[in-house]
Amino acid sequence: MPDHYLAVRDRASFMDRFGLVPPAGAAEVGIGQQGMFVRRPRADTIGNGPLPPLEVATGRWGLIPLFSKAGQDRLFEAPSETAATERNFYQPWKRGHRCVILASALFDPEGGDGASAVRIARADGRAFCIAGLWNGWRSPAGECVESFAMLTIDATEEALMRHLPAGRPRRRPVILPDAWVDDWLHAPVEETATFLRPYPLEVLVAEAVAHPAA
Q1: Region 67-92 average pLDDT
Q2: Model confidence over 50-76: pLDDT tens digits?
Q3: Does residue 9 surpass a pLDDT of 90?
Q4: What is the pLDDT of residue 159?
Q5: What's the pLDDT at 91?
C-alpha cells in the first residue's frame, strides 16, 4: 500500500475530467497530510441554490470516523472486503460518501532500504482515478474536519508487487477505469462493491526511485 502519492495539480486535468477547478495544495501527499478529492457535493454546505453535479474538496488522508474522540485516527486505507461492515467505515459506506482521488503516481515505500520506493504510474501518462470514502467529523471545538481513505484490494500475488519481501499480505488502492468514474460517484449504495475490482497490471509501469519522504 502506498504511503505517498503525487497529486494532480494542473487545472486542465480537473476541467477536462470533472469541469472543476482544483484548489491550491501540495503536489506530494503523504499519510496524515491534506489532499484533494472529488465527490458529490455536501447538501449542508451549498445553501438554498441548486447543487452542482460534483465538487472538489480538501481533507486529510486518513479518515476520521464519526465516533473518534481526538481525530488522530490514521485510517488511510479502507479494505474493500470489509468496509461495508467495519465500524470505522460503515457510516461513510452506508451514506454513499464515495470519492475519487486523482494521482499521477503512487509510491510504495518498501523498495528496499527505506530511502527508496517503487513509483507506480500508468503507462500512458494519464492520472489514476482512485476510489475512496470520505467523512466529515465534528471536533470537540465544533470544527468540521474532512478526511478520506483509499479503498484497497488484496495484491499479495500480483506481479507488480513481487519486488516486495514475502511474509505478509499486500494491498493496493482500487484504481477505477476511466469509464467507471461517474458511475462510481453516483451509483446507489447497494452497487458500491461492484466497482471494487483489480486494475489491469499490463497498463501500469513501476520503477525504483528515491522515496518522497526521504
Answers
A1: 93
A2: 667 899 999 999 999 999 998 888 899
A3: no
A4: 45
A5: 95
Distance CA 78, CA 55 (A): 22
Q: Which CATH superfamily is domain 4-210 in?
A: SOS response associated peptidase-like (3.90.1680.10)
What count of Cα atoms within 13 Å lies in the side-chain half-sphere of residue 97? 27
